[in-house]
User: Fold these one by one.
Assistant:
Number 1:
Amino acid sequence: MKFCCSTLQLHICVWLVTCSLQTGLPYQYHFVMLKKNWTEAQGYCQEKYTDLATITNSQDLSSLMNATVVNSSEEAWIGLYNDINSWRWSLSDEYFYGTGEMEYRNWENAEPNNKMGQETCTTMDNVGKWNDLNCENSRSFICFTGTSNSYILFTQAKTWYEAQKYCRTYYKDLASVRNQTENDQIKNMIQGSGVIWIGLFRDSWKWSDGNNVSFHIWNSGQPDNEYGNDENCAVALLNQLGHWNDINCTYALPFFCYIDQSKIKKKQILSVVVQSSQDVSSPAVKATILEKVSRTLMMVHLTENTVTMSQYIPYNFTYVFD
């Protein structure tokens, strides 16, 4: 399609000959038959593609399943993992904590254990020990008022997120526990109140490339961290329509990588017919032609372009650009 002509000194007509094609889907999936553990698969995908597969909707899932090799394994790694080391306090002000106080922990033996694969919030019991628990459970809770070592205990049961919202609305935040002294202070306050929410929580499932997890298609009963077996990585079950299961990250399995097509530069090839009494093959004229082509692209709002002259066809005074 001819889209612009210039008549300054040189007569230049620019023709769009062809351009690269892209599908409407942002992710192009590749099934890799090599067997690697999750971390090795992640490194392979980041080196050769973009990353381990991210799945953001049912259309992505269909595209991923279409990339599967016939008679392949029953399961394959995707980029989903459980970030079990992301524990942090609801009150995030770094100036509130002294050296090492953000990292203070007083876990019960064998905790945190991520029972059933869904424990991302923290309780304290009446002996001062901590346990990870599903945030949707309802428990009493303790708020920090915002003044030094001042807490208020609430015995009405709320989920962790409800308790966090309440504390932030009426006080400062859910209680942080910065050291053994504060742990003992809160322990003494909660005698007879059972276990209570404190402000420690962690992230749950994340994509390797940092994308938010807004789409879930777990297989029935998953994730379950079966037998407390550190099942912190996810596979697509190829015989279950690609539904997900959590398993131990050390297993050697094939895997899915993806290429982010939105970050691939599209290439357009332009054919330029030049009419001039000058020598159109001379460096000065070629520079003028290149400048006029760039200006022409800007006129039609193609501003983010790098234009190079790749070929000159002398018999019809045509330049090819890409």
Number 2:
Amino acid sequence: MYNELKLFLEKRLEGIYNNSREHSDENLLKYYSDQWHDYTMAMKTINHIFEYLNRNWIKREVSEGRTYIYDVYNLSLIIWKEKVFFNMKDLLIKCLLHLIEKQRHGEQIPEELVKNVIDSYTLLGEEKVDENNSKNPDIPKGVSSFKIYEIYYEKPFIEATEKFYKYESQKFINENSIVDYMKKKIRVPLNVTVRSEQHAENEETRKAIENDRSFLIQAAIVRIMKTRKTLKHVALMDEVISQLKNRFKPCVADIKKNIDYLLDKEYIERKEGEKDTYNYLA
């Protein structure tokens, strides 16, 4: 039964990937986001149906050292990574960074779509890898965990952000005196300076930085809660600040705003009877 389910999911996801070739740019992100949402919702139901298998045969197989056997829900995520994500990752990050750059230039973008795709990176989380059985060349040999978000979103996002602000600062220097530049420079997450000649440009830059920081704060909260499962409000705030301190120091109000966002999106919930404690929702 386990192998039949695995083969069924592999065939289904191969079809999803093949159909993705008909889409590009923003439409590709929407296709990926819609398919991811439908798939994860369906797999939560299927995981419940296979609860007996999870609690008995799978549990026994794992206890006997068969590390290539997973509970049904985690199996579904691993197959998604291999059949969909790893095949689409280059196009996904290209489309994401393109939209984020458009936003930095003041254009309206579908922010909810961007967040949904990035959330999928975070929720895929850390993949437990059996290096003797993995067929994916992207997974480094000799490591036991594989961080999807950090490698495939955070790293290229930071590189693109640094490149963008370096370009903006150089453009300002070329168009103005160094004195004007020193008067107008501001702090940003990567310790680079940006152009801000007029009020409108100041506002545009401020919004771009706020959006960049919100993405990082939300990702940090989800990573922390996924690991800790239950955490008090003060402890969560401290851990978020600790994780992000090398990039920027998030203020308490911004962390609280992003906690509220994740509560609304049901990634976390308040623990019943303890309003200052949060539970992670898978």
Number 3:
Amino acid sequence: MQVIRAPGEGAAAAAAATAAAATAAAETAAAAARCDTAEATAATAATAATAAAAEAAAAAAKQQPPDRNQKQGSPFKAAAASSAASTAANRQKQQRQQQQRQQQQQQQQQQQQQRRKPYSRARPHSPRQLFAARALHHPLSAASNQQQQQQQRLQQEEQQQQQQQQQQQTLTEAARQRQLQFCAFLFSTASPRNRQQQQPQQQQQQQQQQQ
């Protein structure tokens, strides 16, 4: 006795199985391209499970003879098989997305912990040290520190200028004193000579007057 099968039942089941396997394989390739080993392994296992389930569904659809009285139910069976395959694929996608989110959250937490480590090590214990550290990092305190440094530099420059002026004054006064001493020395040495020259002239004048 020949088994009468509904037209398109096996083709629909095979198409659904092929679509599910193709989507799973594409997701596996995408995970491998992202170099995510954990996701790739999970996708590979899910792909194998989906392919096996699809093959089993297709084989069962081929082996089970349809009822002659319910020929109109064969398209509904194919739609149910395709919907089951799509729901399984959607569940797998959701699971992978959840895994990706968890991994991203873990990475973010690790990065935040690594950023906080140096600040936690450098924290002082006393409240005064904490206040001083915060004041140093505050922008207003930084500006005030810069102003203080500039004022100190200006004061140092003024002191240097005053010292230079004092040195110049002392040098000029010393030079004047030397000049005065030299002039006095010249005057003292020249005065006796002038006296000796004036005495014979006076004597000659007196003799002429007497004659």
